[in-house]
Amino acid sequence: MLSLLLQIVILSSIKFCASLSANNTIYIINSAETPSLGRPGLTPIGQQRAQDCIPNVFGTLDIGLIISCTEDGHGGGVGCAAAVETVTPLANRLGLNITTCKAGEDASENCVSNKVKDFGKNSTNSVLVVWDPLEMEDLFENIDIDRPGSDDEYEGTPHLDVIVTARKAKVLSQSSMNCTGIDGPAGTSGTSGISNLGNVPKLATQSTPKLRRRGHIGRAMKLPYY
After folding, report:
1. Are 119 and 128 in contact (CB under 8 A)?
2. pLDDT tens digits along 57-114
């Protein structure tokens, strides 16, 4: 019994150390719009978001580390190629390499957290994480952040303009990229840039309750997002 309790304490300590305890601000976004039926690449709207909007939104936010995902070879992370494509124009503008972690069943639970932790030892710059929408729930679980919102919000098409801002494993806010001609209420268009996000209502606060965790089998049965 004592040995079992010791193992539990050790595992809990490892999980705590791997959480996002660094002071760096973390921005988390989905990949841009992709074609239906699992076809590769980004749609014209997705390309507009990736090439024109995202560099403008994040280009002045002192991003020093960009993290995205790669497919695991077992059907997990099929949207990771689109996630990398989404953030490549920003990476090129900033002169940064894109750091990657596997998504899906082969994903290391501590990969993203460890990379942020290592980066935070020598830099106070912000971190941008761009992920496959179908793997987003596991990402939040692995970095030990309560995902904002409710289960119902994630059953349909994801809102690809949403930016989740977190620090020290706590969600600070949700906001919209407000991409010109793409985001905003129907029939309107705003000016892209995070400076214009102050008028966007917060969808969650730090008091958001922790959601139940779904296994890979349940997630795999979801229909793909179009």
Report:
1. no
2. 999 999 999 999 999 877 788 999 999 999 999 999 999 999 999 998 878 889 999 9
Q: In degrees, to the nearest 5, what angle opens at C-alpha 157 toward C-alphas 41 and 100? A: 45
198 φ/ψ sector (left φ>0, alpha ψ -120 to 50, else beta): alpha
Q: Token pair of 104, please?
A: 């899906």
Residues in Cβ contact with 198 at an 8 Å cutoff, skipping those fewer than 6 apart:
none
Instruction: Tell me how crowded residue 122 is: count the other CB atoms within 10 A of its CB.
Output: 8
Largest distance between two CA atoms of the chain: 64
Q: Are 101 and 132 in contact (CB under 8 A)?
A: no
Q: What pTM, to 2 d.p., does this model score?
A: 0.75
Residue 107 lies in domain: 20-220
Helix 111-120 vs helix 2-18: crossing angle, to nearest 10: 60
Would 104 be classed as within a structural domain? yes
Distance CA 136, CA 147 (A): 9
What are the residues whose beta carbons fall under 8 Å from the beta carbon of 13, sequence distance 6 or more? none
Task: Give the tens place of pLDDT for each residue, 111-167.
Answer: 999 999 999 999 999 999 999 999 999 999 999 888 776 544 545 567 899 999 999
Rg for the chain (alpha carbons), in Å?
A: 17
Does residue 10 fall inside a structural domain?
no
Domain count, the chain: 1
Which amino acid does the sequence have at 92? N
CA distance 139 to 75: 16
